[in-house]
Amino acid sequence: MVDEKEPTRSEEKINRVPLMFVLISGAFAAILNQTLLATALPHIMRDLSLEASTAQWLTSIFMLVNGIMIPITAFLIGRFTTRALFLSAMGLFAVGTTICAIAPNFGILMVGRIIQASGAGIIMPLMQTILMMVYPIEKRGAAMGMFGLVISFAPAIGPTLSGWLVEQFPWRSLFYVILPVVIIDFIIAYFILKNVTKQTFPKIDVLSIILSSLGFGGILYAFSTAGNSGWAAQQVVIAMVIGVVALTWFILRQFKLQQPILEFRVFKNKVFTLTTALGMVVFIALIGGATVLPLFMQNMLGFTAFESGLMLLPGALLMGVMNPITGKLFDKYGARWLAIIGLVILTITTFMFTNLDSQTTFTYLAVVNAVRMLGVAMVMMPVTTAGLNQLSVDLMPHGTAMNNTMRQVSGAVGTALLVTVMTNGAIPDEGVNGLIHGVNVSFIVAGITAFVGLVLSFFIKSPKPGKKDQDQINEEDSKRALTSK
Hints:
This protein has 485 residues and is mainly alpha-helical. Helices cover 80% and strands 0% of the residues. Its main location: membrane.
């Protein structure tokens, strides 16, 4: 069992530069892989003779398994060492990627995607936990800013990269490009990664794991399917009912367990709850734009998949550059004004997408989207770090797992909501401009969501990170230690 003071000692011993390289590389591969197949699906459909509804499962199953694994990660972090868990996750991801690359048919390809997702679901919250453990509180903003660079950059270059690759090479090249990154990252991690998380050896509650899988999996599946099939579809209704019932049962059970799989008491901290809600609001705006704009460009303006991916690239680059900068600003000034200014920018630019028409230019879309991403960069990682800073060391794995789970859920909800609004708001009888009307209505909804986030941001009262926050955490640790005795 790892000594309770291990994380503190690790801060002094661990060389953080190679550690950051390992974590960022792993996160980059995992998140890039999530969006890589979107543009390649038509090529896979032709090659494997698949219907669109069948091929769509290659992306849906990844998100589904990913969403099921994330809540369980807090339990896994308490059960296994940092090294064992990270290497296992990257190993699963590498095996899944290899299977996808050589898959002779759809069934084997699905198996590969499931194995990939089981590794990727562990990687994200584990990496956030490691970063929060090895960096002192006054430097966490900068560290999470670097991490945010990956979260924002990888999904946006995914469609562009895959669009270019599938035009030049067979679709299997998508997996062959990722595989070397994963293998090299695994080898480097084997030599430099140290154990920084604390093993608490929680008991395995099989029922909780089943309920968590059915709950989060059902809700994610329902929302992700509703965007295409409609809310009245039988599979959507069944999945939603199963998800809600299982999730309710799961939550109630966690409050009764002495060692819960996922600790919902993190929401007793008002700052963590508020910042998590803000993160979800911003992610809905982010993921909605990344979904609706390419549909608008390809289906209504006649742009190619590669061009629609290229339109998102300036925003991804700007967000990637800004994340480390906003991280440092957070360390200096705190999250409040960063969030307020960022959400003002996000709200205004989102409403600038409510007047689109058939004459809208590529340049307009790329520039406004880039400024939107600047707003997202000012909010996403600073509010996440502000919330996690409020948690004690033993609650950190639960906080990161909860944060990633809520982001995953909000992504599915946001995509389904905006696509549904876009479809229902379209007026097919009026031709292209009638279809574009649905896009404009969807951005009105996204703009209102961003405005709600702006209102919430004024309630952030946390001072800039510093001694007071650390003292509060130390005091909580001491109380918890006394209670356990």
